[in-house]
Design goal:
3 domains, 7-stranded mixed sheet, 12 helices, alpha/beta
Length: 400
C-alpha cells in the first residue's frame, strides 16, 4: 500500500474524523489529484499532513471516504487483500463461538471497520449485503473468506438496492452458494434465540430476514412480562410478542400492517407454543387511538416502529411521529406499567429521541423514570468516536 493516492481534509474539517468517525463527506476533502476510480484504496490526511488512515474512496458518493484502517494499525506495506482478510478475521474472532442452532451478526459494516459490508449468520446460512464500491470491487475476496468459514451451509446476497444506488452500483441479490438447500428451506431457515425458536426468510424477508439487533430488548421484555397484559406495536414477525408470551404475560396483542409479516408472527407463536398471542392487521397509529377510545389498558407496551427518516432533512417529521406514537402508547399504559420504546432511525441521535419521548410524557401527562437503554445487540458494535454507528435506540420506562 506504499503507492496509494493521498487526499487531505480541508482546513477546519478534521475534528470529526480525527476523533474516530468512520467516514468523510465529499465537501470535506480537498481533491487535488486525479480520481483513482470508485472503490480504490487511498490515504487520508489532515490539512497539515498528519496521516489519519486508509480507506475506500468513491467520488460518486456523498460519503466519499470510508475508513478501513486508522493510521498505525497496519504496516504501510500491507496489501489490500491482506488488509481486508485481516479485518474479516478480526470480526469473526470477536464474536467467538456460535451457539449451536443460533443466529448472530458476523460483520457489522463500520462497526467492524468494514464499511458497506454486513453479514448475518443464521445457523450457518450466511446472508450478506454489499453496499459500497470498495467492497464490491473485492467481492471475490469476501465470498472466498465466507465460504471457507467452518459451518458455512449457504451464501445468500440481500443487498439493499437504494444503498447500492447511492454508490453508483446496480442492484444485486440472490443465491450465491447453497448446495443441497432448496427454496422452501431458505424461505424458513430455522434458528434459536435464547431458547426461543424462529425462522428467517433469507430470500425475501426484511433486510437479511430477521431483526437480530433487538435481542437484548427481547430478553428484557421477556423478563418483565409476567402477569401483564402486553401490547406489541409494529410487531412484524412477532419476535417480541413470542418473548412476552413465553415470559408469562397474561395476554399479548400484536399490531402490524403487513399481512405477510403477520403470517410469520402467527407461525412463530405456534412454533413456540406461545399461548395468549393475538394479532391484528391494522394501521398502528389508528389502532392505538381506537384502543384508547375502548378504554383498554396495558401493563407493558413495546413500540418498535420502522425507521421514520432516511436522512437528516427528514428528522423533524420523524420527531413528530415519535412524539405522537409515544403519547398514544403512554395513554394506554396503566400506572406502574412499562414502556419499551425504540427507534432505528440512524439520522436521529439518542438524546433527541429521548427528548421526543419526554415531550410525549408531558403531553400525556405521565411521570416516567428511565430503567434501562438496551440498545443494539453486542454483535452490532458501535465506534466510540462515531455516534452514527449507534443507530438503534431504546428506552425502558416506568410510569408512576
Amino acid at each position: 500500500m506504499d503507492n496509494l493516492p493521498e487526499y487531505s481534509l480541508k482546513p477546519g474539517k478534521e475534528r470529526r474524523i480525527a476523533s474516530g468517525s468512520a467516514w468523510a463527506f465529499r465537501n470535506e476533502i480537498d481533491f487535488k489529484q486525479q480520481d483513482p476510480g470508485p472503490g480504490a484504496l487511498a490515504r487520508l490526511k489532515t490539512s497539515k499532513g498528519r496521516p489519519l488512515g486508509v480507506g475506500f474512496v468513491n467520488t460518486r458518493s456523498n460519503l466519499c471516504f470510508r475508513m478501513l484502517a486508522p493510521h498505525g494499525e497496519f504496516p504501510p506495506e500491507t496489501d489490500a487483500k491482506t488488509l481486508l482478510g485481516a479485518r474479516l478475521a478480526q470480526a469473526v474472532a470477536a464474536r467467538g463461538r456460535r451457539e449451536p442452532g443460533a443466529a448472530r451478526r458476523l460483520v457489522h459494516a463500520e462497526g467492524d471497520w468494514l464499511p458497506g459490508l454486513v453479514v448475518d449468520d443464521y445457523n450457518g446460512v450466511l446472508v450478506f449485503q454489499i453496499h459500497t464500491e470498495g467492497m464490491e470491487r473485492r467481492r471475490g475476496v469476501i465470498l472466498d473468506f465466507l465460504k471457507a468459514l467452518e459451518g458455512t451451509k449457504a451464501l445468500i446476497e440481500r443487498s439493499d438496492p437504494a444503498a447500492r444506488a447511492r454508490e453508483g452500483l446496480e442492484p444485486s441479490s440472490g443465491v450465491v452458494h447453497a448446495p443441497g438447500l432448496d427454496e422452501d428451506f431458505l424461505r424458513r431457515v430455522p434458528f434459536t434465540e435464547d431458547g426461543l425458536h424462529f425462522t428467517a426468510d433469507v430470500l425475501a424477508g426484511h433486510k437479511t430476514g430477521f431483526f437480530l439487533d433487538q435481542r437484548p430488548a427481547r430478553v428484557l421484555a421477556r423478563t418483565l412480562s409476567s402477569g401483564r397484559d402486553c401490547l406489541d406495536v409494529f410487531c412484524h414477525s412477532g419476535a417480541f410478542s413470542v418473548a412476552l408470551a413465553l415470559g408469562g404475560a397474561r395476554s399479548v396483542l400484536g399490531l402490524e400492517r403487513s399481512a405477510e409479516a403477520l403470517e410469520l408472527a402467527r407461525g412463530h407463536a405456534r412454533l413456540n407454543r406461545a399461548e395468549g398471542c393475538a394479532f391484528e392487521a391494522v394501521d398502528a397509529f389508528e389502532r392505538l387511538r381506537s384502543l384508547e377510545a375502548e378504554g383498554r389498558r396495558f401493563g407493558l407496551v413495546v413500540l418498535d416502529p420502522p425507521a421514520m427518516a432516511k436522512d437528516g432533512e427528514a428528522v423533524g417529521g420523524a420527531l413528530r411521529g415519535y412524539r405522537e406514537i409515544n403519547l398514544r402508547a403512554l395513554r394506554l399504559l396503566m400506572p406502574g406499567g412499562l414502556l419499551l420504546t425504540c427507534s432505528c432511525t440512524g439520522a436521529l441521535d439518542e438524546e433527541r429521541f429521548a427528548e421526543a419521548v419526554h415531550a410525549a410524557a408531558l403531553d400525556a401527562p405521565a411521570t416516567l423514570r428511565e430503567m434501562a437503554r438496551p440498545g443494539q445487540a453486542w454483535d452490532h458494535p458501535r465506534l466510540l468516536g462515531a455516534p452514527e454507528t449507534r443507530y438503534l435506540k431504546s428506552l425502558l420506562l416506568h410510569k408512576a
